[in-house]
Each structure stands twice: as structure tokens, then as C-alpha cells.
Specification:
Shape: elongated
Structural class: alpha+beta
Number of helices: 20
Radius of gyration: 29 Å
Oligomer: single chain
Number of domains: 2
Distance between the termini: 51 Å
Number of strands: 18
CATH architecture of the largest domain: 2-Layer Sandwich
Strand content: 15-25%
CATH topology of the largest domain: BirA Bifunctional Protein, domain 2
Length: about 475
């Protein structure tokens, strides 16, 4: 038989060297490998969230990891657009660039000609595209959930990665504020199921921010105003004011904002103060009315572990929110950014041609939730358990008998393995210890003749000779 001329073995693949030493492989900054324990913990969080999504009636969908650039660009504001990973076109894409464009060295001019696709920045805009594209197949109101990775060309730091999973739930086709009420309940249900107590669900309304911009005479600078205000807890009052000045907001307007920087008290007291500040703004008062509805409903329904808190500086900096805005903070004492967020986007599908399709949705920050649960040691010990019992290999004859028992145990749902090689006993025992396998089974000549199994507890060191039925009972 003639060997295929293009067949290459692993030994023939060249090793890249530098200074006579093999270069170690690496991964891009802001990305991670996950070991078995980490994958088990992440799966625990995702399964917990997925269970609650389904309990609340959401249906799963998936969308491609990359979209057409024009689907994503312009939907997140200037800051968001800069963080979108662009994908170079296939083939000789540089031939489409003229000498004049080269001379300009303009990213704005060249990017559309060399990149027509981009990795998704979030799951919300692709969802809006999905709704418009499949509108004739969907029953409205449509409740969907989606758990998939997204990518952002951000500066990596603790809790912020360039590749990470989002866990989203959205409803489109209903303007009812009961949807917002249910999302507050959904946040509470998920964090209760994760045993994460003390989270704060912050809420604001984009209409209130629009009303404030109107009162200070900065309607034309709403985006600049909200982006700056959203940074209050990160950079402080004075730097927020400096940023507003740099965006052309007047000193008189900034002075009118002073009550916001000192707004305190419970939900009701803050609402009363806002009514006074926004008394001349119709849209601002409408936002207050919506917040009051949500707060009253939640007060009647009660939350298990979370707290609903009004935060009028909350803006989230995204252009597509039009009503309620949510952001979830970790318990006090845990240094972590938001672990969830979302809001209402009445006109998002309109940018894809489907008008008057109101939507509201929230997202869970899987990676940040992981770090919080890890920090305060809330992961159940059982989720990292893998193999429960390892059968020691003494040779082919014994191994075959062991594999028959392993097969029966697996059929009963017991996680069981046979060590593949007849290595020295010490090596196999050390393997079980390093893998943290709690039990080993020894089947030697004596056990083969009697049909018994010697079960050893790797923690206590105790061992007993038992029949298969007893072995199954002990392991189950």
C-alpha cells in the first residue's frame, strides 16, 4: 500500500526555536485554559443559571460566534465599537486597498475594505438580529436564554477577560413592566440557588437620565453625560465633573447635578427627591413612575436573598437602553465589579428593520460569579468529584475481570475506572491519591478464585473483601 505523500507525523513537525531553546507555547492575553476542577465549577454555575432560566419559561437559542460587521458596529457607542474584534477577510484582501487609502493610514477608511466580519461583543445585538431574521417563526412575546462566549478587545485585569461567557435571558414583544419585575426575581432566584447572599440589584431608568440631561440643558450630550455619570463609583465626583466639562457640559448644568451626587436613603426617599429635581421633565417623571411600579411589585412579592436598590448614577454606557437599567453588585467585602446587568431596549430591533418591538433582558457574568464564589468558598465540595473508584491492574486476566465489574458499576451510575497498565502497585496507588479518588479495588488471584473484591478506603486506609452487590451498595 502506498503511503500518502502529504502525510506528516508529529515527529516531523518543526519545533520553533530561539537562542537554541524551544519556544514554549502560550495563549493570548485575556484568555485562559481551564483544568478539570475549573470546568466542573463553571459547569455548576451555568447549570444553576440554566435551570432557573427554564423554570422562568425561557427557551434556548444559539447564534454564530461571529457576525457581519455591520450587524455589530454602531450599536454599543464609540467605546464599545473600539472593543470589537475584527476578522480579516479571506484571500488577498489588501488588493482592495488603493494607494491613496494606504497613504491616509486611516483605520476608519481601511477597516471596512479588509474586514467584513467581527466576533460578537455581546449576545443582545445578535439576539435582536435573530429576532428580525426569524420573526415569522417566533411566537411573541418571545422569551429566550443564551449561554455562549463573547469577545472584547479590552485591557485584561481581574474579572475582565477578552474571551468570556455571557448567560443572557431576554423577552421581546411585550412592554409590560411585569417583565422587569420577573427579571429582578430571576436574579434573586439564581443567586439564592448559588447560596450567594447579600447581592445588591441596582436599578435605574434611562428616562430619568434623559430627564436629568433635559433639566441641565444637555439633551444633545446625553451619551457623554451618561458615560461620565456611570463612572462615579470608579473615579469619584470631581473627575466625573471634569469629564463632563471636557464634553462641553456647562458649569450651570453641572451645579444642577449636585443633588444627584449626594442622593441617599431608601428607595422611597430617593424617589421623592427625584420627583422634586425632575418636576419639569415629562420623560423624567415617566421614568420615576416605572421605577415605582417595579419597586412596589417587588415589595409585595419579597426577595429571598438579594436587595433592590435605586442608583440614579447607573447608566451602563450603552446606547440601546431606553427604560429600566439593571446592575448586580457582589456582597460587601468582595472586591469585584458588576456580576450581572441589563435593561430595556425599546428600539433595538428597529435598527434591523423591525419597528415597535420592545425588549428587556439581563445577563449574568459567569467569570466574575466564579471568582466571587471561589473567594468566599461557596462551591460545594461534591462538584469537583470525578472518579469514585479505581480498579488496580495486576495483569490481563485480572484486568478483564475488573473491566466487567467497572462496566456494571458504570451502568448503575458509579464513576469507575480501570488503571490501563499493569504498573507497580505503588505507582497505581499514588495515581489514585493524586487524582483524589476515594476508593480503590484490588482483584488478584485470590479474589478471582472467590469472585470477591477488596475495597480500600484511600482516606482511612481500611479495606474489606466484599461481593459485587455489597461493593455496588457501598459505592452508591
Amino acid at each position: 500500500m502506498t503511503e500518502h505523500k502529504n502525510k506528516v507525523s508529529f515527529k516531523e513537525i518543526p519545533t520553533f526555536v530561539g537562542n537554541n531553546m524551544a519556544q514554549k507555547p502560550s495563549i493570548p492575553k485575556g484568555t485562559r485554559d481551564f483544568n478539570a476542577t475549573e470546568v466542573a465549577k463553571r459547569s455548576y454555575i451555568m447549570e444553576t443559571i440554566k435551570t432557573q432560566f427554564q423554570v422562568f419559561g425561557f427557551q434556548p437559542i444559539e447564534t454564530p460566534s461571529f457576525e457581519n460587521s455591520n450587524t455589530l458596529m454602531g450599536k454599543y457607542g464609540d467605546e464599545g465599537d473600539r472593543l470589537i474584534f475584527k476578522i480579516l477577510n479571506s484571500g488577498e484582501f489588501l488588493k482592495k486597498i488603493s494607494d491613496a487609502d494606504y497613504a491616509e493610514k486611516s483605520e476608519r477608511l481601511m477597516t471596512p475594505k479588509i474586514s467584513e466580519k467581527a466576533l460578537r461583543y455581546d449576545l443582545t445585538v445578535p439576539f435582536a438580529r435573530y429576532v428580525v431574521q426569524h420573526q415569522n417563526e417566533i411566537e411573541f412575546p418571545f422569551k429566550r436564554y443564551q449561554i455562549q462566549p463573547v469577545w472584547r478587545a479590552d485591557r485584561p485585569q481581574k474579572g475582565r477577560f477578552r474571551e468570556f461567557f455571557q448567560c443572557d435571558a431576554d423577552v421581546v414583544g411585550s412592554k409590560s413592566l411585569f417583565q422587569e419585575v420577573e427579571f429582578v426575581q430571576l436574579y434573586d432566584a439564581v443567586f439564592s440557588a448559588l447560596k450567594l447572599e447579600g447581592v445588591t440589584i441596582k436599578i435605574n431608568n434611562r428616562k430619568i437620565l434623559s430627564g436629568i440631561a433635559e433639566v441641565i440643558g444637555a439633551q444633545d450630550k446625553l451619551i457623554d453625560f451618561t458615560v461620565a455619570l456611570d463612572k462615579l463609583d470608579k473615579i469619584g465626583e470631581e473627575k466625573v465633573k471634569d469629564e463632563m466639562r471636557s464634553k462641553g457640559i456647562s458649569e450651570d448644568g453641572i451645579s444642577k447635578l449636585q443633588p444627584l451626587f449626594t442622593l441617599k436613603g431608601d428607595f422611597g426617599n430617593q424617589i421623592a427627591s427625584l420627583k422634586s429635581i425632575l418636576s419639569a421633565s415629562e420623560i423624567g417623571l415617566k421614568g420615576i413612575e416605572e421605577l415605582e411600579f417595579i419597586n412596589t411589585a417587588i415589595s409585595n412579592l419579597k426577595l429571598k436573598t438579594a436587595t433592590l436598590q435605586l442608583d440614579v448614577t447607573l447608566a451602563r454606557g450603552l446606547n440601546y437602553y431606553t427604560g429600566a437599567i439593571f446592575e448586580v453588585s457582589a456582597p460587601k467585602g468582595v472586591k469585584m465589579g458588576s456580576i450581572g446587568g441589563g435593561g430595556r431596549y425599546d428600539d433595538l430591533t428597529g435598527i434591523f428593520g423591525l419597528k415597535d418591538m420592545s425588549g428587556v433582558g439581563i445577563s449574568f457574568g459567569l467569570d466574575r460569579i466564579y471568582l466571587v464564589l471561589e473567594e468566599i468558598e461557596l462551591f460545594p465540595a461534591t462538584i469537583t468529584e470525578s472518579t469514585k473508584v479505581l480498579f488496580i491492574n495486576f495483569g490481563d486476566k485480572e484486568a478483564m475481570a475488573c473491566l466487567q465489574a467497572v462496566t456494571k458499576l458504570r451502568q448503575e451510575g458509579v464513576k469507575a475506572e480501570l488503571y490501563p497498565d499493569p504498573a507497580k502497585m505503588k505507582k497505581q496507588m499514588n495515581y489514585a491519591n493524586r487524582r483524589q479518588i476515594p476508593f480503590v479495588v484490588l482483584v488478584g488471584e485470590e479474589e478471582l478464585n472467590s469472585g470477591a473484591f477488596t475495597l480500600k478506603n484511600m482516606t482511612s486506609g481500611e479495606q474489606h473483601k466484599v461481593a459485587f452487590e455489597a461493593l455496588l451498595d457501598l459505592l452508591k
